[in-house]
Amino acid sequence: METLTEQNGIFPKLNVEEEPELGATEVESMCMNCHENGITRLLLTQIPFYKEVVIMSFSCDHCGYENNEIQPGGEIAQKGITIRTVIANVRDLNRRVIKSDFSSIRIEELDFEIPAQSQKGEVTTVEGIIDRVVRGLEQDQSVRRIQHPEAAEQIDTFIVNLQALKDIERPFTLTISDISGNSFVENPNAPQKDPATEISHFQRTKEQNHLLGIFAHDEVTDEPNKVTAECIKLENEVPEEVNSLLKPIREGAWPLEELQGEVLQFQTNCPECSAACDTNMKVTTIPHFKEVVIMATVCDNCGLRTNEVKPGGGIEEQGVKIEVTVRGRIDFARDVLKSESCSLYIRELECEVGAGALGGRFTTIEGLLTAMREQLVESTGMFMDSNDKDTKERMDKFFGELDAAIGGNKQLTIVMDDPTGNSYVQSLNDDGTPDTALRIIRYHRSYDQNEELGLNDMKTENYGEEQEEEVVVADEAEKVES
């Protein structure tokens, strides 16, 4: 494992052709079935189009018991995820599914739900989920038929209904809700859009954060009110000699012109190999748009180079949908700012890239298409199954059409949809107004979009009053106690 870590990082990519031996670690552990010692194999890897995972497989030579589970190896996602998939044919039963410990699974037609944390995380299929439920229900049926015959009969009827789902006599809906955001359902039509799947994200509640082990600073302190009062006091008066890592910038101490001309640098960990590296950050202005923050990371350990763009200011009052027709080389040179919340759709290729897939980028139309192609090429191991010729032919056809478009031999219509309104495409007109090949539509966000962005419960006026009132109450309580 040490040699593997030095060459490819802690989580090597899942590529059988280049890395036939990923170096699984074997650990002797107790079998929970016969209580003898068995072998647990651990594999740290990256699943294409998903994230880093730890795959665990246990086998016992004494009783033959086998078990496998999966644990996310990366960070907990910022938001929870809900995946709703309509299973309509046998091919849908073979969709690969990644579920974490915090995933709840619901089958709408049977009004059946598997609660979160009742099963371990695993890599399986839709059919595998049904089979595991059936095995669990059949486990104690022989005893139930003697002690509780009525309950056993009801369970037998339900098992028959579950087994009937695999015959696909009628479509059924599988819904996965995961507060950790670490669940995934395969798209068999990739890179095209999956018409049978709806994916939405949601903000976690305080209770759900606690369940994941995420706590705010004042929640793990014995005296939260005292800490809040001290923080507000420090905001008003911070002496120069305070030896802290982050110090507030006093008004007038650093003019905005100097900030825009300065390249700031701070230490981070490489997203590829987790080694310590530096990130450079600079504030700049895009003409006819707004200020943006450009961040670039270079890792000396693995050579990774990444760049990311964050729009300056807050979320705009309206969302924006930008349609640009790519007719030739002049359109390929248009500057593009794609925010993290912006989804991308190419009509002629029927290809959709979800929000956050390519991250925030400041590039050109050509750079955007090239980055999308590189990401697909690096992750083709997800699709290239030696027994699935249809998928391989579909991917080869898609890459051919994409290469023709990048080479300027195919006209494209690119649609960028950003509910935050923080995306931009350069106009060919000098005054910044949309030209004939550029169409900009502004729209009011829906309630669900505001909910996903966390705007419905956001207080933008007088938000400091409640905090000040809490501090006053804490001070008065402290006086009474003294």
TrEMBL record:
GO cellular component assignments: Cajal body; Gemini of Cajal bodies; growth cone; nucleolus; perinuclear region of cytoplasm
SMART domains xrefs: Zpr1 (SM00709)
Record keywords, A-Z: Cell projection, Cytoplasm, Differentiation, Metal-binding, mRNA processing, mRNA splicing, Nucleus, Repeat, Zinc, Zinc-finger
GO molecular function: translation initiation factor binding; zinc ion binding
Region Disordered, annotated ranges: 461-482
Main location: other
Stretches assigned to the Zinc finger ZPR1-type domain: 29-187, 268-427
Sequence ranges of Acidic residues compositional bias: 463-475
Superkingdom in the source lineage: Eukaryota
Classification via Gene3D superfamilies: ZPR1, A/B domain (2.60.120.1040), ZPR1, zinc finger domain (2.20.25.420)
Locations listed in the record: Cell projection, Axon; Cell projection, Growth cone; Cytoplasm, Perinuclear region; Nucleus, Cajal body
InterPro entries: Znf_ZPR1, ZPR1, ZPR1_A/B_dom, ZPR1_jr_dom, ZPR1_Znf1/2
Keyword Repressor annotated: no
Gene Ontology annotations of biological process type: axon development; DNA replication; mRNA processing; positive regulation of gene expression; positive regulation of protein import into nucleus; RNA splicing
Keyword Zinc-finger: yes
NCBIfam families: ZPR1_znf (TIGR00310)
Family from the record: Belongs to the ZPR1 family.
Family annotation (PANTHER family): ZINC FINGER PROTEIN ZPR1
Protein name: Zinc finger protein ZPR1
